[in-house]
TrEMBL record:
InterPro entries: Nucleoside_phosphorylase_d, Nucleoside_phosphorylase_sf. The keyword Acyltransferase does not apply. One of its GO terms (biological process) is nucleoside metabolic process. Residues 47-336 form the Nucleoside phosphorylase domain. It comes from Leersia perrieri. This is Nucleoside phosphorylase domain-containing protein. GO terms for molecular function: catalytic activity. Residues 1-27 form the signal peptide. Keywords: Signal. It holds the Pfam family PNP_UDP_1.
Amino acid sequence: MADTARSPAATMLTLLLVVAAAAVAEAAVPAIASQAVRHVNRWGPFLGVVVPNGFEMEPLLRSPDFSPAKELPYLDVAGEKKVIIVMTGLGMLNSGVTTQLLLTLFDVEGIVHFGIAGNADPNLHIGDVTIPRYWAHTGLWNWQRYGAGPENELALESNGDYTRKYGALNFSDYTVLAAGEKSGNLLNSVWYQPEEVFPTNGTPESRRHAFWVPVDDRYYRLSKNLESITLERCVNATTCLARRPAVARVERGCSASAFVDNAAYRGFLRSRLGVTAIDMETAAVALVAAQQGAPFIAVRSLSDLAGGGSAESNEAGVFAALAARNAVAVAVEFIKLLG
Ligand SMILES: *[C@@H]1O[C@H](CO)[C@@H](O)[C@H](O)[C@H]1NC(C)=O
Ligand SMILES: *[C@@H]1O[C@H](CO)[C@@H](O)[C@H](O)[C@H]1NC(C)=O
């Protein structure tokens, strides 16, 4: 009866709306997935858990604190806290896009990111789990022409597009020369640049700049409670770290789409920017969270010395699995604190 009572115009409108909604859903996400997402969101809000790679996600899925939701493979519950876990894949582009999709599609109240990292900090050891206060993307550069120096303005600097504020890596400082020799380098210098950010609560198309992106104040204060966690020491029955690793809240971490296994560059990142953890994703997650106004924190365990060790090969080959397990242990304890 209700159907026949409807005017033809109203029916038409309903049909058009349904078609339009389906078309919109198809544009970004298949309709069936978008229906599933809407269904999942009825259980929200969730905590978003952003994980770089499979070997970092596996130990979380195996953790006794984790129980998968019955209905959907992508909805998971850690302890009493409902979480959506996403795996980004390697690098800044993947992690930025995945974090944006997570925040766009799901009802997410905050983000916990975890993974492994290289260590540039002589005060810490392989296996330690860091929680940096600030993150920078160190892969956005202005590459200065040969012959120009620190006193020369960069291309487009006067527009406010680029700055000399964060310093430069000068390739000639790293040329291998016989004692007493001096040499320039045609690669000259790259100057580190802040990202342009467009906060969702800002003026549209009006940029701000961000180099050191802070984690959420409340999350960071809470993370103090993690310092007493006892972490695993051994990869297996025969390979163990010399000392038991610890949780360390530190000042800085940095990320770029480059795997650092180079002592000279590690030394530069440490002396020039004061970083501890070096990875390939966190700053992208931090920047997207900042633009969207979502609280964010990252836990990164140190799997290697980023090229600064005396071992013949990168230590991650031996310690990555242990580091990943410890990163999961700390991230899960943090999620419980939010409980
Ligand atoms: C880089 O080194 C070259 C050669 O020593 C020097 O001329 C130039 O000014 C340096 N640039 C910066 C940014 O330090
Ligand atoms: C333990 O791990 C190390 C490093 O990966 C490996 O060389 C060694 O064979 C492993 N030992 C056992 C008993 O699995």
